[in-house]
């Protein structure tokens, strides 16, 4: 699919895009403004596939009604499993603005964010998230069902293929002391 067919696919949607009800404050139909930014994120998703950078996911960061960063999935390009579109967009937006607080920004994601991306969006304090596709659309072509966990609270840790072990005793104590020992250096939010 190229850009024009991406547009066609978007334009052919009969009903307005509605953010699913699990974001209670965002139940109202997404307005034209959002539609434009979301379309840009979808274009980015196609662009990422076209140039071989990664999976079909795009994300756009908007500040004061202006797109400041437009990114797509870079997992293949960077050989980095964390280089999802939204994480990349958060990183690039922070670099561009030279700060780690994006509380005056919004993010538009072509697809429902995975837990990692949702975490990055949350940590950046982004004031608003608008996404296009529901995770099921990605799952349908084989993407990991892990991606649906973030907003829905359906974490499936048992599916992860690794052993998870929590330290105890003096090792845990030493690791936890880091916070007490360094707290003067950090002014928390
Ligand atoms: Zn992600």
Automatic annotation (TrEMBL):
Q: Which PANTHER family does this UniProt record tie to the protein?
A: CMP_DCMP-TYPE DEAMINASE DOMAIN-CONTAINING PROTEIN, CYTOSINE DEAMINASE FAMILY MEMBER
Name used for this protein in its record: CMP/dCMP-type deaminase domain-containing protein
Keywords attached to this Swiss-Prot or TrEMBL record, sorted alphabetically, are: Metal-binding, Zinc
| Pfam families registered for this protein in UniProt | dCMP_cyt_deam_1
The record's annotation in CDD domains points to: nucleoside_deaminase
Q: Which PROSITE patterns match?
A: CYT_DCMP_DEAMINASES_1, CYT_DCMP_DEAMINASES_2
Tell me where in this chain the CMP/dCMP-type deaminase domain is found: 32-146
């Amino acid at each position: 699919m190229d850009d024009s067919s991406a547009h066609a696919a978007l334009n052919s949607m009969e009903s307005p895009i509605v953010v699913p009800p699990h974001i209670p404050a965002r139940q109202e139909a997404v307005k034209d403004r959002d539609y434009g930014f979301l379309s840009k994120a979808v274009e980015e998703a196609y662009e990422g596939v076209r140039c071989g950078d990664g999976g079909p996911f795009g994300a756009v960061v908007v500040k004061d009604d202006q797109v400041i960063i437009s990114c797509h999935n870079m997992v293949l390009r960077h050989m980095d499993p964390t280089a999802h579109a939204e994480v990349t967009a958060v990183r690039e937006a922070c670099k561009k603005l030279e700060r780690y607080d994006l509380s005056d920004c919004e993010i538009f994601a072509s697809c429902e964010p995975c837990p990692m991306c949702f975490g990055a969006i949350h940590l950046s304090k982004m004031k608003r998230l608008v996404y296009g596709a529901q995770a099921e659309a990605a799952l349908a072509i084989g993407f990991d069902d892990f991606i649906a966990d973030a907003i829905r609270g359906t974490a499936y840790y048992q599916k992860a293929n690794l052993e998870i072990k929590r330290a105890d005793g003096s090792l845990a104590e030493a690791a936890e002391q880091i916070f007490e020992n360094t707290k003067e250096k950090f002014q928390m939010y």
